[in-house]
Specification:
Elements (H helix, E strand, L loop, with lengths): L1 E6 L21 H7 L7 E6 L13 E5 L5 H13 L3 E5 L1 H5 L1 H4 L5 E4 L5 H10 L6 E3 L26 E2 L2 E3 L9 H5 L5 E3 L2 H10 L4 E4 L8 H11 L5 E6 L1 H5 L3 H8 L1 E9 L3 H6 L10 H10 L3 E8 L8 H11 L4 E6 L7 H8 L25 H15 L2 H8 L5 H15 L2 H9 L7 H7 L8 H12 L11
Parallel strand pairs: 1-2, 1-3, 3-4, 4-5, 5-6, 7-10, 10-11, 11-12, 12-13, 13-14
Antiparallel strand pairs: 8-9
Helix pairs in contact: 7-8, 8-10, 13-15, 16-17
Length: about 475
């Protein structure tokens, strides 16, 4: 059986403002995970439209397409194309789970929620000619899952081919997040068996890893065992966490010892009112500055995530946020315009209030305003969002933020990482065109190398106990 797995390009990836490097970071791991359930005599092809032209004149028996909100229209066109050619088409992913009735007319089968339990069942049904129209499984487990088919991934086309996911979901329930929509009807946070995760890490070549888990520190027991097992592997890695997990216990020190060098942190907003109204309880009352200081003391760079347009935001939110992030020495920032994804609590609240302005899913890319704003106009919001990116990544602010670190090496790493990410677009474009992204990995590994702190981790531990007296959460004007 010939099975084709496709990740269609996100609409924004084709826009003139497209930063090719942003869409050449990670391979489609989810599809490679599903491909692992095929039999040895099946032939699998995996194509990612972000990094290659799709071949559309082939004749697979089965086509599996991953659908996100801003590639949904493209995914439906591809599905229609392959169905017209006689292939059986299966659609799954976040958008299909959120809006099954929209996706179903384009598919022979749709998958709701995660696929590790349903895809093997579907394959068995399909081979018998008895495939169902909808697959949903309330049973969720990662025990005994087969090895991800990394042989299908064209490693040379990605900057971070060693991306890895060892958990699914997140223990929290933020109203604007897709997570609850995707995992509805079953467990919404679960982990691999630690030994399986460590074995997968062992199989990955080189030093660098990027954990794409929503919340790598979300299960403290699992994360502690994982980091313990990684000690001595000589890895450097990046991942994501919440503020509260950084502040709790000594998990973050264990992560640093295992090789954590850069962390995506969802600060999202500096307003307690916004945190409360978004149900982002885990950030409420948490001392952002203390979390940042703890990471910096461990030599961990920070990618801060911020959302603009929450109801408590006013027109000064952009400057306040950028100034704060720069003064905190945050290395890179990801700004988003609030986006009510279908299936989320935020979407249903806004829909009930008549605030959804468009259902053109191409605009749901966190760069456009798709809802009726409150204290700020849509024009102001869009302009402020654009300005925040420009200001945060101005040379003067890059230098100012880098200068916040105590160690010279951390300053230099900050400069290299931040400027390298945002200021050398033509260089990235050239590397992508010459298909040399994977050869840039040693540079990234060097930038992520350890900052040696006086007295090492033990000294940091001591400092931390001193420093981490409860401090008030940030208030504007500091
Ligand atoms: S903490 Fe992050 S991943 Fe978890 S629900 Fe909130 S936004 Fe989603």
């Amino acid at each position: 059986m010939l099975v084709k797995f496709i990740l269609p390009a996100l609409t924004e990836a084709k826009s003139p403002f497209w930063r090719p490097i942003k869409y050449s970071l990670f391979p489609p791991l989810g599809l490679a995970t599903l491909a692992a359930y095929l039999r040895a005599d099946d032939v699998a092809v995996l194509q990612d439209e972000h990094v290659e032209e799709l071949t559309l004149d082939d004749a697979p028996d089965l086509v599996v397409i991953q659908v996100y909100i801003t590639n949904a229209y493209r995914a439906y066109r591809l599905a229609d194309h392959y169905r017209a050619r006689g292939a059986f088409v299966a659609l799954g992913g976040l958008h299909v789970t959120s809006l099954p009735e929209e996706a179903a007319p384009h598919a022979d089968a749709i998958f709701l929620g995660p696929g590790e339990d349903t895809f093997p069942k579907f394959l068995a049904d399909f081979r018998k000619g008895q495939a169902q129209k909808v697959y949903f499984s309330p049973v969720r487990s990662l025990e005994g899952i087969p090895r991800v088919r990394r042989d299908l991934i064209k490693r040379h086309l990605y900057l971070v081919p060693n991306s890895i996911v060892v958990t699914r979901g997140c223990p929290h329930h933020c109203d604007f997040c897709y997570k609850d929509a995707f995992f509805t009807g079953g467990k919404s946070f679960y982990t691999q068996v630690v030994d399986d995760a460590l074995a997968e890490i062992e199989r990955l070549p080189g030093r660098h890893l990027y954990f794409l888990d929503d919340h790598l520190l979300g299960n403290a027991k699992f994360a502690a065992a994982l980091f313990e097992g990684m000690r001595g592997m000589n890895r450097v890695f990046q991942g994501a966490s919440t503020v509260d997990a950084i502040l709790r216990g000594n998990l973050i020190e264990k992560a640093a010892e295992a090789g954590l060098r850069s962390l995506f942190v969802g600060f999202e907003t500096l307003s307690e009112t916004n945190l409360r109204s978004s149900n982002k309880k885990q950030n409420l009352g948490k001392d952002y500055r203390a979390a940042i200081r703890r990471l910096h003391d461990l030599g961990i760079m920070i990618n801060g995530s911020f959302v603009f347009g929450l109801d408590d935001d006013t027109s000064d939110v952009f400057k306040t946020t950028v100034d704060w992030a720069v003064l905190q020495g945050i290395t890179t920032a990801t700004f988003h315009i609030l986006t009510p994804y279908p299936g989320t609590q935020l979407f249903s609240d806004m829909e009930n209030q008549g605030r959804i302005l468009t259902r053109d899913w191409d605009l749901y890319d966190t760069r456009h305003v798709v809802y009726q704003t409150r204290n700020i106009s849509a024009t102001e919001l869009k302009a402020g969002y654009d300005r925040a990116y420009r200001d945060f990544y101005s040379w003067s602010n890059i230098f100012k933020a880098a200068a916040q670190h105590d160690s010279l090496k951390h300053c230099l790493k900050h400069l290299a990482y931040s400027a390298g990410w945002k200021k050398f677009e033509p260089v990235w474009n050239f590397i992508i065109k010459t298909k040399g992204l994977n050869r840039s990995l040693p540079v990234l590994e060097a930038v992520l190398s350890k900052v040696r702190l006086a007295g090492g981790i033990a000294a940091v531990e001591g400092q931390r106990r001193e420093t981490f007296k409860p401090l008030p959460v940030y208030s504007p004007g500091e």
